[in-house]
Specification:
The structure holds 2 protein chains of 2 kinds. Chain A is mostly beta strands. In chain A, 0% of the residues lie in helices and 54% in strands. Chain A has strands at 3-6, 10-12, 18-25, 33-39, 45-51, 58-60, 68-73, 78-83, 92-101, 106-111, 115-119. Chain A starts with a strand and ends with a strand. By secondary structure, chain B is mainly β. In chain B, strands 2, 4, 5, 6, 9, 10 and 11 form a 7-stranded mixed β-sheet that branches. The termini of chain B are far apart. Chain B has strands at residues 4-6, 9-12, 18-24, 36-40, 47-51, 55-56, 64-69, 72-77, 86-94, 99-102, 106-110. The chains are: A mainly beta, B mainly beta. The interface between A and B is medium-sized, with 24 and 26 residues.
Chain lengths: 121, 111
Amino acid sequence: QVQLVQSGAEVREPGASVKVSCKASGFSFTSFFMHWVRQAPGQGLEWMGRIGPSGEDTAYAQKLLDRVTITRDISTSTVYMELGSLRSEDTAVYYCGREWADSSIRSFDDWGQGTLVTVSS
Amino acid sequence: QTVVTQEPSLTVSPGGTVTLTCASSTGTVTSGYSPNWFQQKPGQAPRALIYSTNHKHSWTPARFSGSLLGGKAALTLSSVQPEDEAEYYCLLYCGAVQHWVFGGGTKLTVL
């Protein structure tokens, strides 16, 4: 079955960076867009960005454009999200998710279990 | 930057029907925005319900349906069950910049 398994919780100091991984299994990894979203404590979901099936095409939310990088390793079916220059407001649960897209359909379905990133001095 | 607006909260009685809406600051929501809807319960990851306006996943209960209504995307729950109490989020695709934007979420109370 489809599984997206994320790396464990992280604690970072302000100004540092963090890299979260999401290992995929049970499906054709190179057929799907992979996305990252986050959720600060008590807040709503925020779309961060996505990477295309081949890994050559990325898109990021405007507010994070200069701090976030999403990459994928096809050999290990893993997608990564790196966020730099961390600040306290980046404290959140980070989720990876997959999207199937064709000419008429854009479908999100499965999500990882979430990774808590805490930014604190 | 596109802003997506949902009702902050709604209350429905068990067995009733409720419609949640999702509006875009850019204007009328069309099928081109590929509205996706998610349910989230406390401490859990989002659960996909609807994609591309009105398509259901294999696990989506029949009482959930998606549509376009009055220039917005809409999620209608019929014969509401107590377990439907949750936060619901819509997600819209802004194709011009290849971005997606979440609505702020609707907290649905079943009372």
